[in-house]
Amino acid sequence: MSASDQTLCFHRPRLVAKKVLANPQSEGDGAVVRRSIGRSELKILDPFLMLDEFAVSPPAGFPDHPHRGFETVTYMLQGAFTHQDFAGHKGTIQTGDVQWMTAGRGIIHSEMPAGEGTQKGLQLWINLSSKDKMIEPRYQELLSQDISRAEKDGVEVRVIAGEAMGVQSPVYTRTPTMYLDFTLKPRAQLHQTIPESWNSFVYIIEGEGVFGYSNSSSVTAHHVLVLGPGDGLSVWNKSSKPLRFVLIGGQPLNEPVVQYGPFVMNTQAEIDQTIEDYHYSKNGFEKAKFWGSE
């Protein structure tokens, strides 16, 4: 398809504005992650705070740690992870499952591998608006078989949030978000609309593909591609192997972001208060006083 042909798909096709390779780094207790958003080259992409591709083998993991002021979305690509928190919630997500956790005013939890071998997945942090930062924590868990999916012309999509190829996710997102897991067979192409006011990016899980214009250079796995403005994205798999990537987009909050590790608020005073609340087990962290994961 020529560049002129692409205008038939979108009024303003989104092009790759920035490309960053997510190199492995240590995180948690002996775990290894590839961090794309949340590193020095790409500190934040409003409303997204962080994206990690993790690969964890027991006994490594992410033992007891707190959160406040945002949401975490954990998507298992291989294996299983067990989650426990100080409110008594406990569960295991398997390959293809999603846990959408709204930390709100405060959560302390652990995330640990539930089986032998390497457990792999993606974890995305989505900021909450100032009016939602102190809401009560909540969970949405989506089993693999319950994720909306569609397939056509060599393109398969799993719709974790938002809508694609005529199917919609049941997940409620406080910050308007799309989270789409695409697999393109060799020679397949995709044209996906994206709301013009949203920020968006691609993270390539496996394979290689061409993004934006058909004559662009091919991009390989573990790269994050920040997309420029426009109303949609075109993708081509010109290789002989499948291409798998997530396309994630969201409505920017356009609010100040002050982050201290796992706490994300709007002002330094709110961060100082959060540290005090956590230290003294109050204002949302009361249950932390006598809790530890099993």
UniProtKB/TrEMBL annotation:
It comes from Nyssa sinensis. Fe cation binds at H65, H67, H109, E111. This is Pirin-like protein. GO terms for molecular function: metal ion binding. GO terms for cellular component: nucleus. Belongs to the pirin family. Binds 1 Fe cation per subunit. It holds the Pfam family Pirin_C. Residues 179-283 form the Pirin C-terminal domain. Its main location: nucleus. InterPro entries: Pirin, Pirin_C_dom, Pirin_N_dom, RmlC-like_jellyroll, RmlC_Cupin_sf. Keywords: Iron, Metal-binding, Nucleus. It is found in: Nucleus. PANTHER family: PIRIN (PTHR13903:SF8), PIRIN-RELATED (PTHR13903). Its cofactor is Fe cation. Gene3D superfamilies: Jelly Rolls. Residues 33-126 form the Pirin N-terminal domain. The keyword Transcription regulation does not apply.
